[in-house]
Design brief:
six-stranded mixed β-sheet; about 40% helix
Length: about 230
Amino acid sequence: MNEKKVVTVIVEGPSDENAIGGILKEFFSSEEVQFAVVHGDITSNYSTTKENVVSKVGALIETIKSKYGYNWGDFVKIIHIADTDGAFTKNCIKEAEVENIQYYEDHMEYFDVEEVEKRNTHKSEIMFKLYTTGKIRNIPYRLYFNSCNLEHVLYNELKDFSDDEKEILSDEFAEKYEGKVLEFIDFISDKSVSVEGTYKETWKYIEKDKNSLQRHSNMHLIFKID
């Protein structure tokens, strides 16, 4: 029998876990924190649909349950952290000869405008489904956003980082806030980053205009007692 309750954190990549894993484990020190690294973006994957995304997230929790021998009753919270990638914007994609989507605070650039529009429609629908889903497998669930992405929020840089660059930046960030969870909460709660309001209100904000391209996050709500 496990003495501690389990908080599961779902992130897109290993550098995300590296950057904030220590902070979350320190904050939730009375629980066991287990990370599920998707190695990609479940919200923009075309194999993910509005109909199956909740079961896909449930499968991630099932994997952790089986790996560590937990019972479903051991899980007390699911924290899912995802990038918005400008998904809620309209009519701001410019055609350009670039290999990967390039993000700016007022537009995106890509060689195939229709493909980005399709991606945005798909991703925004999936994110809406998830943030309006309060429980998965009867475990309290919340989706938190970084806009335009985690690197934009944490490092205040909006560029196409390589995996190696992400690793270096995440190492530096983790070292900076090691043992300093209150300082991180101050950082992520600052008005230059955080979106004011309730959980639902922060999502309504990020859905408007070009907000999902600009530097915003509601991760500060992770650290507020419900």
